[in-house]
Amino acid sequence: MNQDISGGLENTRCPEIIKIISLGKRSGRLSFSSGSESGNIYFRDGEIIHAQCGPLQGVRAIYELAVWTSGEYRFS
After folding, report:
1. Cβ(30)–Cβ(18) under 8 Å?
2. Alpha-carbon distance 64 to 32, whole Å?
3. CB-based contacts of 26: which residues, under 8 Å, 6+ apart?
């Protein structure tokens, strides 16, 4: 099953999306965009293996993305 997941952060926030991907043991890239800002979280078998948001990497990038309340996300 290789379906993309996408939507708006106004309805579904980053922590909820991470939970869905983790429980589904999916692999791929979760990308976020809000205005001129963007970030990515990479998964392998439901585990986060890397994240970046602007100059931030790892856990700090995830924390930054977790507080975004507007923008778009896409998992592929």
Report:
1. yes
2. 11
3. 43, 45, 46, 75
